[in-house]
Structure prediction request, 166 residues.
Amino acid sequence: MIALWRFAPLVVCLAPLFAQTKEYWQSCPIIAKLPASMRASNSLDDSERFEIRQCEGGQVYVTALERGAAQPSLIFAGDGYPRFLAHAFNVLVVQSMGGASDHVYVFAFRSGKPELALKTATKDLIQVRQDGGSLVVLVPLTTYPGPDGKFPPPPPVKRYSFALEP
Prediction:
């Protein structure tokens, strides 16, 4: 009985925090609007786009809005300000620092619908290249020393390809 009494105030204190964070991203200022469609007839606010918001404390939100939508159909709560950011047409690549590894996220519009196309981790800086009609993300794999304390030869980087839709 005593143990339950000790934890009850904790539950009551945490409940309002969940309610406050539901739409918290909307109060954060937009620091970038990136078009996901290069159709000249559309204004940026009416076309498919990514928006990056930065909140107090440095947390970054990535939202993606479909053509003509007032509200995003993809809302992603990320880490702090990105260590690396790349954008080409309908693909947005974000690498952010986080704990023991960096987090790598790729967001893409496919046929007008946004999605989180890749979520992975690395301990090194990624590379992004445009190769014809694709955006290629090269993610270095992590190696660890063997029992003798020596590192093995580095493995080839992991290669991810995302189709560009201008």
About this structure: Helices lie at 2-21. Confidence is low (pLDDT under 50) at residues 1-21.
